[in-house]
Description:
Elements (H helix, E strand, L loop, with lengths): L1 H7 L1 H6 L1 H14 L4 H26 L7
Helix pairs in contact: 3-4
Amino acid sequence: MKYIIDKNVPIIxxxxxxxxxxxxxxxxYYYDTLDRYLFNIASLLIFSxxxxxxxxxxxRRQKYDSI
Length: 67
């Protein structure tokens, strides 16, 4: 399934955290260098930071009447 999505809509595979993790493990197994693995880890970290910031700013604006 990963191959089909990567072939037809590659941007979804670049943003899918599960795909980034599996690609990182495959790159550790198949390639001699750590370049692709480090790129996947950096992408995951950037993606995580962006999602944490979006959720922080989204939840910060909510006001509760009971508090």
